[in-house]
Structure formats: structure tokens, C-alpha cells
Amino acid sequence: MPGKRARRHFSQLNEFERGLIIGMRTAGWSTRRVAGQVDRSECAVRNCWEQWTREGTHVRKTGSGATRKTTTREDRRIVHQVLVDPTVTRSTIRADVGVVIVPQTISRHLAEANLKSKCPFRALPLTPEHRQLRLQWCQAR
């Protein structure tokens, strides 16, 4: 199926495949032949070979993005605070941790720990008047 093969083309080259590509290209194989052998796109093979000839290494570059503001210890502390008191707010957690982080960071750490937000009720969801009106509605039907 062409769809299944195309999906593999978008996954990252692992260390072994990079080594194979460099070895085959060093042996004089064409880019097209190497791509067919390792079941990757010609562009991926070409990029791997260009990196090897330009930098002399086949190791993947580190990912982009912002650096983490919290350590693993601080991450555990955030999760621990929520487990001890489920009604604690994000601003309280941020003050206790002592690191300048945005509330979304705290939410992300809690989501990584499979913890959902738990908001305390500000008022009871149904007043006695609401209950009475619901009961009347149900009895009428």
C-alpha cells in the first residue's frame, strides 16, 4: 500500500539507518539506490549524506524550542502539592515552587502526571428551589 510506505518516510532516521546510508554512499551507491534499500526518501538520504560531508558526523541535532525553566525536582514538587491538596491554585503553587513560571507550565506538568483540574464549588449546584422545580417538571411528564 502506498499510504503505509509514505508514513515511514516522515519518521526520523535512527542511528543504524544513518550508519547504513553513510556506508552505502561511501561505497559509491547512488542516492536513489540507497533510498530504495533503506526504504526512505531520497531527500532524507541526501540530507544525511550532506550532514556527513559538511560536519563529519551523522548524529541528530538537538531539538529547538525553549529550555525548561523547572528541574525534575521542582516538577515533582508541583505534582506533590496537588496530590496533598487538590484545591490548591496555580498561583499558590507558583509561589511555593519559587521559580518564575507561567500558569500554563503548571497546567502542563499536571497534565503530564495525568492529573485533572479540580475546582471547588463556589456554591451548591442546585438550590432547594431548583430541586423543587425539577421535581414538578418530572412529575408533570
UniProtKB/TrEMBL annotation:
Q: What is its main location?
A: nucleus
Q: Which GO terms describe its biological process?
A: DNA integration; DNA transposition
Q: Name one GO cellular component term.
A: nucleus
Q: For the Transposase Tc1-like domain, which residue ranges apply?
A: 75-140
Task: Indicate the transmembrane segments per the record.
Answer: none
Taxonomic superkingdom: Eukaryota
Q: List locations, semicolon-separated.
A: Nucleus
The record's GO molecular-function terms, alphabetically, read: DNA binding
* Pfam families for this protein: HTH_Tnp_Tc3_2
Give the protein name, as stated in the record.
Transposable element Tc1 transposase
Tell me what organism the protein belongs to: Trichonephila clavipes (Golden silk orbweaver)
